[in-house]
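testing teh design pipeline on a random one, pls ignore if ur not involved
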């Protein structure tokens, strides 16, 4: 799968500053990550870089590879639990890579930093069906590809034709076909690097019916998810033949709170930032949920949320 924290070599701020002295894009030193995540926790990244073009991502990757710096690609932070110690090395935020265009009758080209719901709406406006499920997934296109984001019966990989990646090994762009074997449930096995764009293949349909389906999905979320609190979507993947939320609910864990982090009363597989929680609060709560389900039901829960950063 796409790399998260690439290398473990110790680096210093001075070595980063020296290597990045000719980098012309936006640079934010010691940038606190909490505001960039939907859970609203996470300490500072040594440096956050916001490239404005694919070419800039490529030159950045060449610097990273040359110096073997650890790096992390940030999408919309909607599937992340970043620890209180923050992130060592470089965080690359792709929010300026947000172009989207119609390629032909059935294909849309989109850059990785575009919010996934915006892509869903764009497809709807073109009268193309397939991405209605994405309207309520608050990530970016890049994050959705890496996570193979979806809902029961619909997932990102099903509509993806190709992916363009800046390869970690070369710093060069490579476009690969989005073959089925590269993706599984909330998982991808892509070459190491930074996804910069993708081409989605969709089917023609009526705008009205696409819009109606989208609204139905959005309504279901509003009815079942604790959307008025900061959260990270599903904390755990559903174990085979089980629903993580139902397991947590039947273990009587809903409402359990550690520090400012709480298991949602609304949905057992959501944790919410109830009251100025720290990442440590969430980590303790998640550990408690795992142990309780394993001890009472013998089922190991696997995190869907990605836990990253230093303690
Ligand atoms: C309210 C709520 C509802 C949600 N509902 C759903 C749902 O229905 N279905 C679902 O699947 N998920 C859901 N999620 C989880 C989340 O939105 C998805 O996993 C989403 O795809 C994450 O995208 P992101 O851009 O936020 O990625 P991030 O959380 O920023 O990152 C996730 C991973 O992707 C990597 N990454 C991101 N962009 C790139 C890139 N360009 N190149 C390489 N690596 C990259 C990151 O390094 C990290 O490893 C929900 C979350 C919330 C808060």
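output:
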């Amino acid at each position: 799968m796409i790399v998260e924290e690439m290398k473990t070599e110790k680096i210093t701020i001075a070595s980063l500053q020296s290597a990045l002295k000719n980098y012309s894009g936006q640079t934010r030193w010691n940038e606190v990550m909490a505001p960039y995540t939907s859970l609203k926790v996470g300490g500072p990244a040594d440096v956050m870089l916001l490239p404005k073009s694919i070419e800039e991502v490529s030159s950045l990757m060449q610097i990273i590879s040359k110096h073997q710096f650890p790096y992390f690609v940030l999408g919309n932070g909607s599937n992340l639990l970043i620890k209180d110690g923050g992130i060592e090395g470089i965080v690359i935020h792709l929010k300026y890579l947000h172009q989207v265009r119609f390629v032909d009758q059935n294909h849309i080209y989109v850059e990785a930093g575009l919010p996934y719901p915006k892509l869903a709406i764009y497809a709807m406006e073109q009268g193309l069906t397939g991405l209605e499920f994405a309207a309520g997934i608050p990530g970016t296109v890049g994050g959705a590809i890496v996570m193979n984001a979806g809902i029961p019966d619909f997932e990102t990989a099903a509509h993806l034709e190709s992916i363009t990646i800046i390869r970690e090994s070369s710093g060069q762009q490579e476009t690969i076909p989005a073959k089925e074997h590269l993706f599984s449930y909330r998982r991808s096995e892509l070459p190491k690097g930074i996804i910069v764009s993708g081409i989605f293949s969709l089917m023609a349909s009526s705008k009205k019916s696409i819009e109606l389906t989208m609204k139905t999905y959005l309504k279901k979320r509003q009815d079942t998810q604790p959307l008025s609190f900061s959260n990270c979507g599903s904390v755990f993947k559903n174990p085979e033949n089980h629903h993580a939320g139902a397991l947590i609910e039947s273990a009587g864990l809903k409402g359990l709170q550690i520090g400012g982090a709480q298991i949602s009363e609304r949905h057992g597989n959501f944790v919410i930032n109830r009251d100025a929680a720290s990442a440590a609060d969430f980590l303790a709560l998640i550990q408690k949920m795992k142990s309780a389900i394993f001890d009472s039901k013998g089922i190991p829960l696997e995190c869907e949320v990605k836990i990253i950063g230093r303690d």
